[in-house]
Amino acid sequence: MSTRDTGTEQLIKDTAKHLFFAEGKLHATTQEIADAAGVNRTLVNYYFRSRDILFDQVFNEAQDVFSTTLDEVFESNIPFKEKIRNLINAFTEETKEYPYRQLFIITEMNRDLVLYSKRSRVNKVKEFIDEIQVEMDNGELRKMDPRQFIINLFSLMAHPLITAPLQKAIFGMNDDEYAKLMEERKELIFETIFR
Amino acid sequence: MSTRDTGTEQLIKDTAKHLFFAEGKLHATTQEIADAAGVNRTLVNYYFRSRDILFDQVFNEAQDVFSTTLDEVFESNIPFKEKIRNLINAFTEETKEYPYRQLFIITEMNRDLVLYSKRSRVNKVKEFIDEIQVEMDNGELRKMDPRQFIINLFSLMAHPLITAPLQKAIFGMNDDEYAKLMEERKELIFETIFR
DNA sequence: CTTTTGTTTAACAATTTTGTCAAACTCAAA
DNA sequence: TTTGAGTTTGACAAAATTGTTAAACAAAAG
């Protein structure tokens, strides 16, 4: 069967991603998704058969984009510090656009609906760990479990973006003020990580 | 009207907290809560009238416990470094037990169902910021926006616990190995924060 | 212009989840 | 032991959400 490509299928998927990852509405109903997309709810079933299948597709694509972004940084053949700088930039921008994506992945993992695809990310991480170890041996980094280094890095990048609403409330800041703070963090994270 | 206190009301509330905060099942149904508590679902309505009211109570109590824990640390009249050490301990233990509590608070905030009670946490935070500023002026801390210091601290503490399932998958670790890593972090966070 | 095929819509059915009610039950007080 | 207030239960009703179907529609092909 051929297709006429009215763009509706992609529109629904993009809208779902926006609701889930950008607005944090992790349990939006098909009606809410359809309304946000400005289409008839039945089209969700027409294109995706069921809500669960839409969920799965969005979930998997989210993981792929996320993985690809990180891989491009990891695999680039440039000095370690530059690599980290690129990572901070790429990750921050990604997370700014979709702050709740990781959160979505985690909650879905907790529902046991999706078995986390061990698409052997483990191996690529091992390479990154080795690279970090070399830097530590050369005295470029404070010695510690390289996994702690990675955890530190991602914590400093991701957490303030994931918890943005909470932080804004605690500090009494508006969106612009917080965005500025996040921009300043890029350099600050770099300095913190490298002592 | 007096009460006979069979413990059922508290049991339901505790079970809900456990599902939400410990297991991350943020959208557990009343049936699931009742089953987990081993009681008839109707009792949820008997004690709380509606599911939303149960949600609100659990949500508010979560905020209160969280706030109280932090306040006790903030208000204690001890040297700054000790205060931070206590904070790291208290916060880590709390988050270990209920890793998804903050996540729950955030997603609820995004549903616009609950207006974040600005119970003037802002003021207490201001005092803490001042205290940090003094330390920076005295050269005890690297100079930066004190809010960044706070964000760094909470990011390093909370994020690896919130994203535990993800991290375990990425690093290929089991529960015990990850718990050990988290324990080692307490000291590591302290050192990272104080350069 | 007619046909064909893919798309969209509304009405309907099925399922899931929540809320209500009266009856049964339990335990303490009279 | 009876009475009575609070508790628990199952049956039922209501609401919300999802899934299905047939008919209307739109655009390309013949």
TrEMBL record, chains A, B:
Organism: Pedobacter caeni
InterPro entries named among the record's database cross-references: Homeodomain-like_sf (IPR009057), HTH-type_TetR-like_transc_reg (IPR050109), HTH_TetR (IPR001647), Tet_transcr_reg_TetR-rel_C_sf (IPR036271)
DNA-binding region: 29-48
Molecular function terms from GO: DNA-binding transcription factor activity; transcription cis-regulatory region binding
Domain HTH tetR-type: residue ranges: 6-66
Pfam families documented for this protein: TetR_N (PF00440)
Keywords for this protein: DNA-binding, Transcription, Transcription regulation
Name recorded for this polypeptide: Transcriptional regulator, TetR family
Keyword DNA-binding in annotation: yes
